[in-house]
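notes to self, project folder thing:

trying the whole complex as one job this time. last attempt i did each chain seperately and stitching them together was a nightmare. two parts in total, labels are on each line so i dont mix them up again. if this works i'll redo the older ones the same way
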Amino acid sequence: GQNIDQPTEMTATEGAIVQINCTYQTSGFNGLFWYQQHAGEAPTFLSYNVLDGLEEKGRFSSFLSRSKGYSYLLLKELQMKDSASYLCAVRDSNYQLIWGAGTKLIIKP
Amino acid sequence: TAGITQAPTSQILAAGRSMTLRCTQDMRHNAMYWYRQDLGLGLRLIHYSNTAGTTGKGEVPDGYSVSRANTDDFPLTLASAVPSQTSVYFCASSDSPGSTDTQYFGPGTRLTVL
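result (full assembly):
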């Protein structure tokens, strides 16, 4: 079966750095996505990785290791507005997205 | 630009009744998708359409039907609602299903079936 694993919840302090991990087992791999979802809102796109390595976008970075079936999202200089759920999704061999249940990130002052 | 709109925002529906959730996009995207999101679970694909005139079944299609008469609209119909269909429903679109383009989501419809 196909499986995406992420921690259910994480807590971090404003101004700090947090790393959200995602491991996957899917039938084929055609890219990995990270989305942000604030409570009661729609998911919005954060990053996309298809090759191994680190992709940096301002305060957010995403890393991929295809051989390990592993990715992480790194958030730096945390702000209160970063409190949200972070969804990991893998595009499988049929080009459909398989989604993790999401990691709820709580930022404390 | 509106992007993707969904209607209604929320609905309470009696079991056994039918309902159509509406989804319209103005980005001229080829592909559209319907997901449901339940607490503790990832988004699950119900149905998708890679281009106008074609549809396909996702992970959880039973009890739902879709149509894609044109590029912009992708309605989702529940023929006879059951309580297990209580969920938040998201419509999404992408420019091309096999490309690296991301999926863009509508604001969602919160459906409660009693």
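what i see at first glance: DSSP finds no helices and eleven strands in chain A.
need to look closer tmrw
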